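Reopening this one. Same input as before:
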Amino acid sequence: MAHAAKLPLRIAAKLPPENRYFNATIKPLLDQDNVEFVGEVNDRQKQAFLGNAAALLFPIDWPEPFGLVMIEAMATGTPVIAWSRGSVPEVVEDGVTGFIVQSEEEAVAAIGQIRNLDRRHIRERFDERFTAHRMAEEYVASYRMLISMSQSQTATKGKRTGASTRSEAVSLVGDSQKLLHEPS
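Same output, byte for byte:
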Protein backbone atom coordinates (compact mmCIF):
# COMPACT_ATOMS: atom_id res chain seq x y z
CA MET A 1 0.00 0.00 0.00
CA ALA A 2 2.82 2.40 0.84
CA HIS A 3 4.37 1.82 -2.56
CA ALA A 4 1.05 2.26 -4.40
CA ALA A 5 0.19 5.42 -2.44
CA LYS A 6 3.72 6.81 -2.86
CA LEU A 7 3.81 7.69 0.83
CA PRO A 8 6.03 6.43 3.65
CA LEU A 9 4.56 3.73 5.87
CA ARG A 10 5.57 3.61 9.55
CA ILE A 11 4.53 0.52 11.49
CA ALA A 12 4.40 0.38 15.28
CA ALA A 13 3.71 -2.98 16.91
CA LYS A 14 4.72 -5.14 19.81
CA LEU A 15 6.09 -8.48 18.68
CA PRO A 16 7.40 -11.47 20.57
CA PRO A 17 11.21 -11.75 20.23
CA GLU A 18 11.10 -14.82 17.99
CA ASN A 19 8.05 -14.48 15.78
CA ARG A 20 8.51 -16.87 12.86
CA TYR A 21 5.59 -15.49 10.84
CA PHE A 22 6.89 -11.93 11.16
CA ASN A 23 10.46 -12.92 10.32
CA ALA A 24 9.49 -15.07 7.34
CA THR A 25 6.57 -13.12 5.86
CA ILE A 26 6.49 -9.52 7.05
CA LYS A 27 10.14 -8.58 7.62
CA PRO A 28 11.14 -9.07 3.95
CA LEU A 29 8.41 -6.57 2.98
CA LEU A 30 9.96 -3.99 5.31
CA ASP A 31 13.12 -3.82 3.20
CA GLN A 32 11.61 -1.09 1.04
CA ASP A 33 12.76 2.53 1.13
CA ASN A 34 9.37 3.93 2.15
CA VAL A 35 8.57 1.39 4.94
CA GLU A 36 9.83 1.69 8.51
CA PHE A 37 9.18 -0.72 11.37
CA VAL A 38 9.28 1.33 14.58
CA GLY A 39 8.51 -1.47 17.03
CA GLU A 40 6.55 -1.00 20.24
CA VAL A 41 5.69 2.54 21.35
CA ASN A 42 4.58 3.65 24.82
CA ASP A 43 1.48 5.79 25.42
CA ARG A 44 3.31 9.13 25.14
CA GLN A 45 5.10 8.03 21.97
CA LYS A 46 1.87 6.63 20.56
CA GLN A 47 0.12 9.99 20.84
CA ALA A 48 2.87 11.69 18.83
CA PHE A 49 3.15 8.75 16.43
CA LEU A 50 -0.56 8.82 15.63
CA GLY A 51 -0.91 12.60 15.78
CA ASN A 52 1.83 13.10 13.19
CA ALA A 53 0.45 10.46 10.83
CA ALA A 54 -1.48 11.37 7.71
CA ALA A 55 -3.83 8.49 8.58
CA LEU A 56 -4.04 5.26 10.54
CA LEU A 57 -4.25 2.18 8.32
CA PHE A 58 -6.22 -0.56 10.07
CA PRO A 59 -6.17 -3.53 7.67
CA ILE A 60 -7.93 -5.92 10.02
CA ASP A 61 -9.15 -9.20 8.56
CA TRP A 62 -10.90 -10.68 11.59
CA PRO A 63 -13.92 -9.52 13.66
CA GLU A 64 -12.05 -7.18 16.03
CA PRO A 65 -14.43 -6.53 18.93
CA PHE A 66 -13.37 -2.90 19.41
CA GLY A 67 -10.01 -1.73 18.07
CA LEU A 68 -8.87 0.83 20.64
CA VAL A 69 -6.15 2.17 18.33
CA MET A 70 -8.85 3.61 16.02
CA ILE A 71 -10.17 5.67 18.95
CA GLU A 72 -6.63 6.69 19.92
CA ALA A 73 -6.01 7.93 16.37
CA MET A 74 -9.25 9.93 16.29
CA ALA A 75 -8.34 11.48 19.66
CA THR A 76 -5.37 13.08 17.91
CA GLY A 77 -7.52 14.14 14.93
CA THR A 78 -5.96 11.49 12.69
CA PRO A 79 -8.33 9.87 10.17
CA VAL A 80 -8.70 6.08 10.12
CA ILE A 81 -8.69 3.94 6.99
CA ALA A 82 -10.02 0.55 8.05
CA TRP A 83 -11.35 -2.64 6.55
CA SER A 84 -15.05 -3.24 7.20
CA ARG A 85 -14.63 -5.97 9.80
CA GLY A 86 -15.72 -6.34 13.40
CA SER A 87 -16.44 -3.05 15.15
CA VAL A 88 -15.01 -0.85 12.38
CA PRO A 89 -18.43 0.29 11.04
CA GLU A 90 -19.46 1.22 14.59
CA VAL A 91 -16.30 3.22 15.28
CA VAL A 92 -15.37 4.88 11.97
CA GLU A 93 -17.85 7.26 10.37
CA ASP A 94 -17.17 6.73 6.68
CA GLY A 95 -16.23 10.02 5.03
CA VAL A 96 -16.22 11.86 8.38
CA THR A 97 -13.60 10.33 10.71
CA GLY A 98 -11.99 8.22 8.02
CA PHE A 99 -12.90 5.65 5.40
CA ILE A 100 -14.22 2.11 5.58
CA VAL A 101 -12.79 0.00 2.79
CA GLN A 102 -13.05 -3.54 1.44
CA SER A 103 -9.68 -3.97 -0.28
CA GLU A 104 -6.13 -2.66 -0.65
CA GLU A 105 -7.17 -0.83 -3.82
CA GLU A 106 -9.94 0.99 -1.93
CA ALA A 107 -7.48 1.78 0.89
CA VAL A 108 -5.02 3.34 -1.57
CA ALA A 109 -7.86 5.40 -3.08
CA ALA A 110 -8.91 6.47 0.44
CA ILE A 111 -5.35 7.63 1.19
CA GLY A 112 -5.78 10.06 -1.68
CA GLN A 113 -8.95 11.40 -0.04
CA ILE A 114 -7.71 11.98 3.52
CA ARG A 115 -6.79 15.58 2.76
CA ASN A 116 -10.55 16.23 2.36
CA LEU A 117 -11.21 15.34 6.01
CA ASP A 118 -11.04 18.01 8.72
CA ARG A 119 -8.77 16.84 11.54
CA ARG A 120 -10.43 19.23 14.01
CA HIS A 121 -13.81 17.72 13.14
CA ILE A 122 -12.39 14.20 13.65
CA ARG A 123 -11.31 15.27 17.15
CA GLU A 124 -14.74 16.82 17.78
CA ARG A 125 -16.44 13.55 16.80
CA PHE A 126 -14.09 11.71 19.18
CA ASP A 127 -15.14 14.09 21.98
CA GLU A 128 -18.83 13.58 21.14
CA ARG A 129 -18.62 9.79 20.98
CA PHE A 130 -15.70 8.32 22.91
CA THR A 131 -14.52 10.38 25.88
CA ALA A 132 -14.77 8.81 29.34
CA HIS A 133 -17.23 11.54 30.40
CA ARG A 134 -19.55 10.89 27.44
CA MET A 135 -19.40 7.13 27.95
CA ALA A 136 -20.14 7.53 31.69
CA GLU A 137 -23.20 9.64 30.80
CA GLU A 138 -24.40 6.81 28.54
CA TYR A 139 -23.95 4.29 31.36
CA VAL A 140 -25.96 6.48 33.75
CA ALA A 141 -28.72 6.86 31.13
CA SER A 142 -28.78 3.06 30.63
CA TYR A 143 -28.95 2.45 34.37
CA ARG A 144 -31.81 4.95 34.75
CA MET A 145 -33.68 3.24 31.92
CA LEU A 146 -33.22 -0.17 33.60
CA ILE A 147 -34.45 1.16 36.94
CA SER A 148 -37.46 2.77 35.26
CA MET A 149 -38.27 -0.45 33.39
CA SER A 150 -37.93 -2.43 36.60
CA GLN A 151 -40.22 -0.07 38.49
CA SER A 152 -42.79 -0.16 35.66
CA GLN A 153 -42.77 -3.95 35.63
CA THR A 154 -43.21 -4.03 39.41
CA ALA A 155 -46.10 -1.56 39.25
CA THR A 156 -47.78 -3.57 36.48
CA LYS A 157 -47.25 -6.83 38.38
CA GLY A 158 -48.62 -5.25 41.57
CA LYS A 159 -51.79 -4.08 39.77
CA ARG A 160 -52.35 -7.54 38.26
CA THR A 161 -51.96 -9.36 41.58
CA GLY A 162 -53.45 -6.68 43.79
CA ALA A 163 -50.20 -6.49 45.77
CA SER A 164 -48.77 -3.20 46.91
CA THR A 165 -46.20 -1.61 44.62
CA ARG A 166 -42.62 -1.78 45.83
CA SER A 167 -39.27 -1.12 44.26
CA GLU A 168 -37.32 -4.00 42.84
CA ALA A 169 -33.63 -4.18 43.46
CA VAL A 170 -31.51 -3.40 40.45
CA SER A 171 -28.08 -4.88 40.50
CA LEU A 172 -25.43 -3.67 38.07
CA VAL A 173 -22.51 -6.03 37.89
CA GLY A 174 -19.05 -5.82 36.34
CA ASP A 175 -18.09 -4.48 32.94
CA SER A 176 -21.45 -2.90 32.15
CA GLN A 177 -23.22 -6.26 32.44
CA LYS A 178 -26.73 -5.46 33.58
CA LEU A 179 -28.86 -7.90 35.59
CA LEU A 180 -32.34 -7.28 36.97
CA HIS A 181 -33.27 -9.15 40.12
CA GLU A 182 -36.89 -9.57 41.18
CA PRO A 183 -37.61 -10.04 44.86
CA SER A 184 -38.37 -13.62 45.84
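So the earlier flakiness isn't reproducible anymore. For the record, The chain has a mean pLDDT of 85.
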